[in-house]
Amino acid sequence: MQRRAFALIFLMLFCSLLVIMMGHHAWAQEEQKALSLDDLLNIAMEKNPQIIAARERTNQASARLEQAAAGLAPKLDLSANYSKSEGGLTDNPFDETYEVAVNLTHLLYSGGSMEAQVESAKLELEASKADELRTIQMVDNGVRVSYYDLQRARSRLNVALEALALAKEHLNEVEALHRNGVVAINEVLRVQVDVSSAELERISAANAVDVALAALEKAIGVSLPKGITMPQPEAEAEVPPFHLPEDPQMEALKLRPELKSLESLRMSAQALARSAAGQARPQIYIQGSGGMIDTNLLPEEDEWRVDLLFQWRLYDRREIESKVTEAKSMAQELLHRISDMENQVKLEVSQASLSLASALQRVNVSQDQVRLAEEDYRMALRRYQTQVGTNIDVLDARVAYIDASNALVNSIYDAYTAYSNLLFAMGATGMEFASIDANTEEGKIQ
Questions:
Q1: What does the alpha-carbon distance between residue 73 and residue 266 come to, in Å, rounded to a whole number?
Q2: Which of 43, 149, 347, 419 is deepest in the core (most CB within 10 A)?
Q3: Residue 7 falls within a domain, yes or no?
């Protein structure tokens, strides 16, 4: 009876432990969910310090606009005062006074100065929003380019692994021929050296993957969890068509946030000039106050007063005139900076367009080169197996095949990078990016 009870308890404990282990395994799988490029971009939009800082600068500009707008609104102040004096010339040696007052101040006319300040603050806010948008685009492009570099490094690692496997396959063939007395030992040694070189290339490629992953984390702005998975690189896939407008340069002149920011700042400088000029005109305020002063805590009598104030600065040793000149000069400076920026934008778009066209041409050539080089290697290996060809022919053919494979990898990811850089140069947002993570098969980063 006791044995049956002990067996039942042991069975229950075993089942509980099994449930816990299965739950932990499921949780680990959930934690290692694959991260696509869109996932990485979403993380960057939320966590990247540059984007957060840009948003705070926009918040600062918004607060300055509120401050400027507050200058046109009435000001209402409440004050209370209690005073006690002893001695003096009065009959009462102990004098206590209670005072409560409400003051209202409102600007009726500022010569257009305050209105121009509000307009300037609005334009500065628009410029800050444009700068924030450009920061988002910069981070977006940085993440995409770093992601493509990581996929490039992983593709080159796959090529290095393939090269190592081919070298070992060839070594097995040479060793078999040597055991049968067909080839000399020097050919075995030569292939062993080639295997060692392939292993060194694999180590270098694996290190390049780690470096690219660190660069991607820097672009995102946060560290990624250990053991994350990402889509397998598309080293041999056809590059999809890229969607671009008919005239990228004209589109860039419309979309680039820097041009919008500079134009807003130029108009803001003009508004500052009008604001400074308005200070030379009369300023009219209305002030109203009401209060109660008495020796009792709750005074019964009150006093009210309304004043209309007129102020006009007649001489300031050219202070206002110099402010107007400074603001106008700033507007002219920004006008020339806009012209220079337009030329810079055209140059950036032209360079990115040429890089994309060159990369696409190299993709087509590299694909044919890989196919021919692979066939040439297989033929050289078969000729060597039948002792029609030489060992050098096999080694040279394999080097050519690996070089062609790496060239294809570089051309493909150069095309993706060039397309991303072109859209960044255009200042494009909401346009469809070519996706290299369409393959749902996942590969773990080593």
A1: 27
A2: 419
A3: no
Distance from chain centroid for Cα 292: 60
Residue 160: Cβ within 10 Å count: 23
* 81 CB-contact burial (10 Å; exposed 0-12 / middle 13-18 / buried 19+): exposed
Question: How far apart are alpha carbons 323 and 267 in whole angstroms?
Answer: 16
CATH code of the domain containing 228: 1.20.1600.10
Are 242 and 355 within 8 A, CB to CB? Answer: no
Q: Is residue 87 part of a domain?
A: no
**pLDDT tens, N- to C-terminus, the chain (446 residues):** 455 555 555 555 555 555 455 544 443 444 456 788 999 999 999 999 999 999 999 999 999 999 999 999 999 999 888 887 765 555 555 567 778 889 999 999 999 999 999 999 999 999 999 999 999 999 999 999 999 999 999 999 999 999 999 999 999 989 998 888 888 899 999 999 999 999 999 999 999 999 999 999 999 999 988 877 888 886 555 677 788 888 999 999 999 999 999 999 999 999 999 999 999 999 999 988 887 776 665 555 677 888 888 889 888 899 899 999 999 999 999 999 999 999 999 999 999 999 999 999 999 899 999 999 999 999 999 999 888 889 999 999 999 999 999 999 999 999 999 999 999 999 986 444 444 443 334 444 44
Contact between 198 and 190 (Cβ < 8 Å): no
Place of tokens 């090269």: 163
Instruction: Determine, yes or no, domain membership for 142.
Output: yes
CA distances from 204 to 157, 161, 201, 248, 296 (A): 9, 11, 5, 39, 90
- Residue 312 included in any domain: no
Spatial distance between the Cα atoms of 76 and 134, rounded to a whole number of angstroms? 41
What is the number of domains present in the chain?
1
